[in-house]
Amino acid sequence: MIEADGLCKYYGPFIAIEDVSFRVPRGEVVAFLGPNGAGKSTTMKILTGYLAPSAGTARIAGHDMSTDRLAGATRLGYLPENGPLYPDMTPRTLLEFFADARGMKKRQKEERIEAVVKQCQLGSVIGKAISKLSKGYRQRVGMAQVLLHEPDVLILDEPTSGLDPNQIREVRETIRRLGEKKTILLSTHILQEVDALADRVILIAEGRKRFDGTPRDLVRDGRGLDEHFYEMTRSA
User: Fold this and answer.
1) What is the pTM of this model?
2) Burial group, residue 142, by CB count within 10 angstroms (0-12, 13-18, 19+)
3) Phi first, then psi: what are they for 142, rounded to 5°?
C-alpha cells in the first residue's frame, strides 16, 4: 500500500534523504522513527506527492505519486505536523467544507461527517469554534478531516507533538482504533509511540534508513529502545 523505492531529495549540496526504500503492506502500522531533522517529514511529503523527489519513486496503493497523484490521493489520508485548520470554523463547518471540496453528494456527506465525528469523538465540540478547542481536540478535528473520504492509507506526521500526556493518550487511542482497518505510517521521534502503536519500526537518521524490523527485533539483545536509538542516531 505504501512503497518508497530509492527516494532521494537534494537541495544543492545538502542531502535531505538518500536511497530510502521500504514497503508497507495492507493493514500494518509502521512507526517512522528518527531524531528531528532526520528526513522523516521530507520522506512523507514525497510519499504524499506534496514534494517531488530528486530520484526514486513513491507509490500509494500502486499509484506513482509523481505522475498519478490525484488517483493516489483518493486512497490516502495525510495529517501533516500542525496541520492547518480554519480557526473561525467549527468542526462541523470544516468537515462540510472539505466534503463539498471532494464533491460528496448530500447524503454521503451527512453519513461521512456523522461517522468521523463518532470515530474521532468530536460530538461534544462539534459546534464550537476550532480556535477555542484544545490542541488535542484540534488534532482530532484534523484526523476527522483526513478520514472523511474513507482512505485506505494514513500518513501521520508527528500526530502527538506538543500535546500533554492526557491528549497524547487520546490521540494514540484514536490511532490504535484506526490501525485495526487502515494501513498507517506514523512519523515520530517519541520512543514510547513505538511500544504503544507500532507493528514495525523504520528508523532514519541523517537522511538514510538505519533499521527496518519489528520493535522486538530492535531490542533483541536485551538493551532498551532508547539505547539503540542513541547508538543509531548519535552522529545525526
Assistant:
1) 0.90
2) buried
3) -60, -40
